[in-house]
Amino acid sequence: MHARLGWLLAVLALAANAAWPQTVAAADITTYAQARDRLVANVLHTRTDVQEILGQAAPVPGPVEVPADSDTLRLGRGPGWIFLVRLQAESRPPYLLAVVHEDATVDVRPVKTMPAGLAVTPVPEPDPAPAVSVRTQEEAYAVLLARLLGHSAQGRRIHAAREQVAGEAVVATWRGEVRLAGGPGWLFFVDDVPAANWAHPCRFVLVRENGELVVTPSRTPPANMEPFTELTTWPDGAALPSPALLPDAAPAAADARDLASTATPAANRHAVIISGGYNSWSNYPRYWNDCAFFFRTLKQYGFLDANIHVLFADGTDPAVDRSDGVSSPLDFNNDGVADIKYSATKANIALVFNQLASALGSDDILYIFTTDHGEPQEGNEHPYNTPDVLLDLWGESISGSELAAEVDKVNAKAMAGIFEQCFSGGMVEALKKPNRVLMSASRWWEYSYAMAPNYNYNEFSYHVTVALANAAKGDSNNDGHVTMEEAYLYALANDQYQSELLDGELSNEGERSAYWSSPWTLGRTLSLYGIPPSTAAPRYAGYTQTQSADPYPSLGTATNWKADNQYWAYTLPFAFPFGGQQHTTAYVSSNGIIYFASPGSSGTNRVDTLATATAVAPLWDDLTTAGTGQNIYVAASAQQVTFSWVASTYVDNIPVNVAARLYRDGRISFYYGSGNAHIGRVSGRDKTIGISLKHVNKGMHLGLHNGASILGEATALHFSPAGPMAPAPWLLLLQ
User: What sections of the protein cross the membrane (predicted)?
Assistant: First the structure.
């Protein structure tokens, strides 16, 4: 068989495997060469520091576990092919360990040393792709899969223009236009991160008749998707118009709140809900679901219809405004009253906040909820070191400073803001002022994500609303109130996007919510009931958490614990009570965490990983204390012992100065000195803060500073053992 003909038959078989043009299931990876192509397509194509790709030609069965960096790395269920990518010497870390699975998923872990006992050899370079004659769109799609996407559409959404491009393709996007010259050929739009809200990486690809590809990256989709047909199947989420289908409606929890005195009268509690969706194609049903769930929760708390201002998509226009081809229902709770009153435009935002400015005063509380898409402002490029962001509306956008100007018109006793969209931490930064509690799905440099597998809701706002709607889940101290602090900590602990890594598109694989409260106590007093005369401190793992302006402690004695990814045993001067046990040995890690059992040396940190440890973590990250002037210091007495880290982040050498103090009576304090600026999108550089008692039910108490971007000279955190907890008010109803 002629080589070119054989190659074309192979890629056409791949397209047939993908069931083009109806639905595309992930094409299986069946050979070592295909696995190498998939690795490049998913992980390496944006990197400029790759020196060599090593691998094992034979697939390995699963589950795949590889000992590396004094840890056991779990790399998926297998079967698949193992690769080790050697990066340039100055890259940190210098290796990537990857497994390409037969279903085309790829698991990657950065490693600092070549795993001992891993037998890998250089992977042969692929032969140059032969010239082919591409005569149909189906053949063009097969070429796209084989030459650009690593033989599979898995994890991506792909759309094809219905008409062949004769010469140059010009496509208007949300932020300008893209041009692809070189036709005749077939045009494709590839969404590389479809689980994320916009804006995020995508590509326009022209497959020429000779098989060559013209690729133009973008961050936003076509402004008009009508000329395109989707070739893949992706769950956009389903509309959930029936109240019975909304999650976690908890009558017992609602009754519990009736036991609590109404802190602020309903007439003085107001809310603004904003979701634009930008256009009908990108206005996914989950945004309506997000807003409906929050709206119904407000009603559960007795909010008046007249005090809830909803700005959604195209407002009351009966035209189709949603990706499932319908006009968004105006009624969120099936009571026959239209709840959506305005389209989500800058003009209507100004109108609503002008009304609120004239109506609200020092006895009123305002709650703001936003969802849909967000973007960095023009000029704010990767790694997004500045908090200049946009919230997308209906066909336009509003900047953080513009939204802040509208919000600042309102004089209220207190405000709360919950922001779901990508880059939403920028809104937290823009709206920071006294008497406000603000939280977001992501920091200002991160995308935010929909809830897998069905994408019926966005991940963070769903968990926040669940906590507020269901006291059995959100009320940590059984006082009948779910405060903003409790809702934030519940969402932080339950968010399923737990990763500090970037993928091959330089997209954050996880999201970490931002949080800010001024004064810091406002977040633990403000609930959807308003502000009561008094509330109990949130309680997790048997501890309460407070903040103070206590000074950073003196360093004490240098230990010469200077290393990367190591821990040292330290005999405490007293038995430290933690989780119902007495501990006389602390295992102090170079990575800003202290273990009391099963110590580890890894700096790879996640909230759900902390939950599996018995440890206290003032700032758990991939740190090193091996540099000049770095060390771990100890100051001990009969009543307390303080461990201080003078360190830096391993990946990018950011100074880190943190301390943890253990008291004889079981109290724990965290202190923050200069540096500690974990900002910008950097793979493998994030932090987890809190205490965890692995053997205790619900035994994790996350620090409020998880939500801070910069912890230089930040307030100290104190965790104190709490006494017995009263039964929940809703339980009393059952007696």
Answer: none
DSSP state letters, 27-57 = PPP-SHHHHHHHHIIIIITT-S-EEEEEE-S
Distance CA(262)–CA(532), nearest Å, equals: 7
- Quote the CA–CA distance of 506 and 190 in Å, as a whole number: 16
What's the rounded mean pLDDT across residues 525-538? 93
Do 346 and 398 contact (CB within 8 A), yes or no? yes
pLDDT at 245: 45
Give the whole-angstrom CA distance, residue 139 versus residue 120: 35
Are 487 and 326 in contact by the 8 Å Cβ rule? The answer is no
- The full set of domain ranges for the chain reads 27-122, 155-230, 243-536, 545-721
- Tokens 């958490």 found at: 545
- Which amino acid, residue 713? E
Cα–Cα–Cα angle for 566, 569, 575, rounded to 5 degrees: 145
- The residues facing 414 across adjacent strands are 365
Per-residue pLDDT of 534-578, as tens digits, reads 889 999 999 999 999 999 999 999 999 999 999 999 999 999 999
pLDDT tens for 311-337 read: 999 999 999 999 999 999 999 999 999
Instruction: Report in angstroms the alpha-carbon separations of 521 from 80, 130, 369, 704.
Output: 51, 66, 21, 11
Q: Hey, is 231 helix, strand or coil? A: coil
- Burial (0-12, 13-18, 19+ Cβ within 10 Å), 330: middle
Q: Distance between CA 85 and CA 499 in Å, rounded? A: 20
**CB count, 10 Å around CB of 182?**
17
H/E stretch holding 642 reads: strand 640-649
Confidence at 128, pLDDT banded by 50, 70, 90: confident
What are 501's two structure tokens?
């890594």
How far is Cα 310 from Cα 700, in angstroms, rounded to an integer? 36
With 0-12 CB in 10 A as exposed, 13-18 as middle and 19+ as buried, what is 22?
Answer: exposed
φ/ψ of 417, rounded to 5, equals -130, 130
H-helix or E-strand spanning residue 144: helix 137-147
The model carries a pTM of 0.93
State mean pLDDT over 101-105.
Answer: 96
* Beta strand extents in 232-307 (DSSP E only): 269-275
| Spatial distance between the Cα atoms of 510 and 149, rounded to a whole number of angstroms | 22
In sequence order, which residues have a C-beta less than 8 Å from that of residue 168 and are 6 or more positions away?
Answer: 179, 180, 181, 182, 183
State how far the Cα of 86 lies from the Cα of 387, in Å rounded to an integer. Answer: 34
Question: How far apart are the C-alpha atoms of 417 and 430, rounded to whole Å?
Answer: 11
Q: What's the rounded Cα separation, in Å, for the pair 312 and 273?
A: 8
Max distance between CA atoms of the chain, in angstroms, equals 84
What average pLDDT does range 89-107 have in this prediction?
96
Confidence of residue 727 (pLDDT cuts 50, 70, 90): low
DSSP classification of residue 478 = S
Instruction: Pick 243-536's CATH classification: 3.40.50.300, 3.90.1300.10, 3.30.430.20, 3.40.50.1460.
Output: 3.40.50.1460
- In residues, how long is the chain? 735
Q: For residue 528, give the DSSP letter.
A: T
The H or E element spanning position 256 is: helix 251-259
